[in-house]
Amino acid sequence: MKVQIKIGRRVFCVSEDDIVLDNGSIVQLITQGYTDGWYMVCPKLSKKLFKDLKALLILYTDAELEEYTKKHYPYPDTKCYKFDIPRMIKLGYPTEA
To answer: How many Å apart are CA 92 and CA 63, to the nearest integer?
Structure first.
């Protein structure tokens, strides 16, 4: 199941397989993208949206994600998160039509 979330001026449909990357200076949804001119761009979450999603326990991390992060992004202070879709539905986020 997919849930709609607004990131910037665009609406994205996210699932439990989507990954949010926080490298300490920028937070982005690395499993989706959109075209900006000639380039494919990952959507960037604002600091406020990221903080709110973490406070509502919508974003979570686990051992599997920590292994993924160490393998693909071996930098300090880099973390990956996934969406808790059942919690998002419970909180009233719209589902994909």
So the answer is: 28
In contact, 5 and 14? CB cutoff 8 Å: yes
Q: Which residues have a Cβ under 8 Å from the Cβ of 5 and sit 6 or more positions away? A: 11, 12, 14, 83, 88, 93
Q: Six-digit token pair at 15?
A: 């699932």
- Report pLDDT digits (tens) over 1-48: 899 999 999 999 999 999 999 998 999 999 999 998 999 999 999 999
56 band by pLDDT with thresholds 50, 70 and 90: very high
Per DSSP, the three-state class of 38 is coil
**Selection from 11, 41, 20, 9 nearest residue 84 by Cα:** 20
pLDDT surpasses 70 at 69: yes
Contacts 24+ apart (CB under 8 A), 50-55: 50/20, 50/22, 54/81
Contact 57, 88 (CB under 8 A): no
